[in-house]
Request: fold
Amino acid sequence: MSASVPFYRKHQRSYDRGYRYQLAGRYSAGTSGGTRTRGLDWLSQPGLDPLPKRTKPSYLAVDRENQIIGYVVPMFRTSQEFAEGYSDHTRLRDTAAYMERCDRFTSGLEMERSEQIARKEAMRESAQRISFNKTLYEHDEHFKRMNEDSLLHVPEFIIKPRSHTVWEKQCVRLHCTVSGWPDPRVVWYKNNVAIDPLAKASKYKIESKYSVHSLEINSCDFEDTAQYRVSAMNVKGEVSAFASIVVKRFKGEVDTFLPAPRRSGVKDGPVSEYGITFQTHIVDNFGVSFGREGETLSLGCTVIIYPALHRYQPEVQWYRDGVLLSPSKWNHMHWSGDRATLTLTHLNKEDEGLYTLRVTTKSGYKTYSAYVFVRDADAEVEGAPGAPLDVCCLDANKDYIIVSWKQPAVDGGNSILGYFVDRCEVGTTHWIQCNDTPIKFARFPVTGLVEGRSYIFRVRAVNKSGISRPSRVSEPVAAMDPADRARMRGTSAPWTGQIIVTEEEPAEGIVPGRPRELQVTEATKNYLVLSWKPPGEKGLEGVMYYVEKCVSGTDSWQRVNTEIPVRSPRFALFDLAEGKSYCFRVRCCNAAGVGEPSDPTEATTVGDKLDTPSAPSKVVPTRNTDTSVVVSWEASHDAKELVGYYIEASIVGSNTWEPCNNKPVNVTRFICHGLTTGEKYVFRVRAVNAAGLSQFSPESEPVEVKAAIGGGIPHASPAPPYGISVLECVRDSMVLAWKQPAFIGGADITGYFVDYREVVDGVEGKWHEANIKAISERAYRVTDLKENRKYQFQVRAANIAGVGIPSLPSDTFLCEEWTIAVPGPPHDLELREVRGDSMVLLWKAPVYQGRDPVNGFYVDMKEAEAPEEAWRGVNTKATGNTFIKVKNLKEQESYVFRVRAQNQAGVGKSSDISEPVQAVTKPGTKEISVDVDDDGVISLNFECANMTPDSKFVWSKNYEDVDESASRLTVETKGNKSKATFNSPGEEDTGIYSCLVTHTDGDSSSYTISPEEMKRLLEISRDHKFPTIPLKSGLAVEMLEKGKVRFWLQAEQISPNAKVDYVFNDNVVTQGEKYKMNIDKNTGVVEMTMESLMPEDEGTFTFQMKDGKATNQSSLVLIGDVFKDLQKESEFQRKEWFRKQGPHFIEYLGYEVTPECCVVLKCKVGNIKKETSALWYKDGREIKADEKLGFTEGVLKLEIAQISKKDAGVYETVLKDDRGKDTSKLNLTDQRFKDLMNEVFNYIANSSTPLKITSTDQGIRLYTFVSYYNDLLPVTWHYKDSPIAFSERLKSGVVGDQLWLQISEPTEKDMGKYAIEFNINDGKGGLRRTVELSGQAYEDALAEFKRLKADAIAEKNRARVAGGLPDVVTIQEGKALNLTCNISGEPLPQVTWLKNDKELTSNEHCILRFESGKFASFTITAVSTVDTGKYSILVKNKYGTERAEFTLEVTEGTPDLGVTSYLTDAEGNVVFGANTLEEKMKTAITGMTKESAAAAEKMDNLTKKPEEEEEEEVTVQEMLMNKEI
Reply:
């Protein structure tokens, strides 16, 4: 009955059902030529005489070795009908018809006899030919044996094995024909590893007949994809031939198990004895079955073999999980002639698996498979775990056996605490528990056995609820030496030329040697197993062993088995300290004594060396049938000694998990049967090894149980790829790229297959496979090409539904090496995040880099319908990324893109143009949002409204897929929402995060986390994770009046339910006399006040706040100096309060300097009244009040003008009245006074004028003016930035407010930069005024100096009347008049006296004298009226002339005998004196002033000693000169 062909297989003619039947027949039967045998058994007798007439022929088919291989049916006229096949009913009916025809047509009997005779003759001739060929063969063999040397030659492959590509679960056979003499020895290898058919009898079958050698591989899977080598070797040499086998999954029968045929003596090709070909049909099949432990289950199928031969029995075999079953007490098999039955007499979980019936005839085989599930029996104790399974013995010795088992899938709701191992001696029913405490490891060494006895074992699991039922017992195993066990089996060994003595008498008196190769074979925290080899010497019968141990690092050896030596070279040690390291050694002993110890082992730490596997991941359920679901998952990472996986299912919302399998499966794909149609299930998986069960995987997405499209196949195969292009080309390989199929079949594409063919002169060759295993990328390097040849390529895509049809052949490409300097084209362009004004373009870097590495990319774009000239660049500067966001697009417009790569040599060829994409925001499009939950977890969230059942969320960072196992993100998907949670967010998590939803119309979005954004999110996360009451200010302390101490803080906002605990030194304090608390919930101020601080108040003050979930606290530590300072401050404030009750200082005494350089001492006072008095003191002495002492507007001032050193001291101000007094002091001594003076000096310096240049008769003078000069002002003069060393020629000085520098007799060496620096020690440096004395300035100053010097010399040396004469002299007649004046000049001037402009001469009346060249005197002895007139003195020398005049008036009066002398003062007044010199200057003359009298008084010194007179004269001259000035 033909079945309908699914839609995805209609175009695949090569892989239809007939093709599979042909393959099955081809790979299961031998060649017809080698099996068509004409000989009968009676022809095998010697001689070729005719058969006796009465002898009945034997219808048995024999082979060349005369072995019966089947029946031979004679060919009658109805042979064609027999070839077509009869049923039993038809055969009986046709036999009756034949007899009727024989009776009816007797005339045909003679014809039949003739035909029979002809047949016999033909058979006799055939037998003769066979006999003749056999004789020739024996002759040839004899000749070869007699002439071996002349016929020896190396092996040679006449026919080499060829490569095959087959579907999974099918069988394949490799053939080869080898010649050589002697006959070569043929060995088959898989990936250079010799194939042992005995080790895997159900997998491999190797045959060698008549120089034809074959390797048959049954039930191929992906692991059989390999390179196979056949090696032929004899004494002349060795040759090899190679073939590859590629196994692919056939999309129509992914779950079909095809066991390998097991035939003996059946040669290749369909058997067609006289035209008969057997056809086998398996009907009335058994389905997926469910049983429970302890029940009996029968599986059966009806088998129809056509044609039906009497007593013909096909080979019927049963398999479980690919392992051939043999009849046993657990398995009963029956064949009734048309029905095969397998009865499982006592179900156990070991019986769970995929059962396959295989019926083999000489024409091929047929199989049928179905799964059998075995559930746990009801526990004897509620909550107890299920029974363990697969109990077996791994290593058996004389007194030691290792028992292993598998953990059950059901733990009873509580984790399994461990296992108990029981043993029972065969022949008894007494079970003995082997371990006192449960062991968790699924292996246990059982010791204390009796050598030679056989045992069976069972295991029980235990949890806190109880002990499980016991497992199925193991196969019996004997406690004996493995060598003895091998001898008992009677296995034969090849001849080696050595005689092996199996038994030996013990050598007496020989102490055994050291054991060899001691090692730790297994280590857990419960036990440790040692193994070694016996010593190699003789006398080993009866040898036993002592085991010794010592702690690592010590040399103290302790014997472990002190009482009974062990007989086996294995030993298990228990009761070792977990975590400690031990060393071990072994000694041999016999009747002769104890031997030397073996070499110790390496230090071994006691503990489990095998870890439980990691949890599986990515559990994906897929619909299958109305009652089953296909579950696939990702295997556990780095799992060691993995046993398999357990799968559990739960109806959504029930929270009840049921096991889907009770026997571990070692694949990552399983069909879960027995589900309820229409219900939604979720699944989880966990792995198991000897160490235990892993954690459960994350739950899968819910899946509804209903039949999938395609009769159990969830999806269709994908459409063909397209757009094949070349990315790189070298001499013998090309890198191809292609585009993903438009239709992927509803399931993710799992890979691609590439084919290629050579094109010669336009003629296409045969397609060849480029890759054996599917490739996941859309780029692949095709190797083993030939240079300068042309090739075409095609690509096929595959998914879980199968391999799709190939693409159209590509363009023809020439295989020649690229040598261009610029890079090749980028490839695999992809557009994501399409919006109305933007989209993101992704691409992959070119495979061909060019001469230099690629350093950037350029992106071009244009409207889809625009001409080629419309291409324009997206980026003007090359980008180093392989993605770019294109913005400013026009909505509803379609665009295409291309990418070019550049390196240092330039810009390369552009990529293929992308598919047109319309810039439009699709309805329902949502963007990625960032969220920080209440626990502070930062996550990116994306919701998709267009999900399909097969859609998945794919997260990426910077558009590179995120690996969840090594990622800093944890992705969680529920329904149409996906969340990517940051595990430990930090700066390294910045970047562009995007999410793509598969199996949608490009739904995707991205979110950029910049460093600033990450900082913001971390702050929010911190606030959410640790919610705190935000504070405006932390806990602080301040002083109140009277010295009160206030502790306070302010929260930004608190609710009326907020609470505060006040803690001092970890003790909560409450409201009382000492503490006053208050909370202002409107302002958020929390405060606590204390009247004062005592020594016991030293410590830590804390305010603990709680407002709902939010909390916060703030502490203030007051210990040590901090507390002492605060306590002093409290005491001070208390005193201050009392002080301020009377007159007091608001601001204490200080000072300020005015711009006029006056120092003002001032203070601010308060709480004063009229009666309040203020007194000033300096150094304890009261300062008398004067006009500078003022007291206005609460400010008390004392002004110090022109401050000097004498003003240094301690100043004090006292306020007092009847309410009390207050005092303020200001110390202006030492450094404080220096600071004050520096401030004064600063004002002085800033008031200085720019430095100027002037000239004097002595030289050049530099000067500056200040507003006020103080003797303490530090001033330094500099010349060319160096201090000036003063001398007679260089002097500095001060005249009033002028500071000057005098350069006497300047020369050119004095030219340069001069500066005056005011050295102010105020930390800011001094002030400097500079002037440049050079160039024209110097020339002008020097010329002016010379001029002034000449004038000064002339002025100094010219003749002059230094003292001058009075303007008017009035004297009484008769008096004597004497006038004297000082005359100076060099050379000595000429003196002339004149009266009324007439020269006078000296006589007795008028005496004119000029003495000592200095003094000119005018004396009239007796004045008369005649002497009245105008007199003058004229002095003259070469430098000039000077004239002094006076008028003499004579009055009448009493004559005086004395002489009247006159001396003029600085103002020209005459001083009148007595007639004697001693009395002169004592009497005032009319018109003289006080100053003139003082000058006249000095003239009295003329009567002094000569040396004194000279000194006085100089003084008078100076006075007179000052007068003139």
The first strand starts at residue 60 and ends at 62. The longest helix spans residues 108-146. The chain has a mean pLDDT of 80.
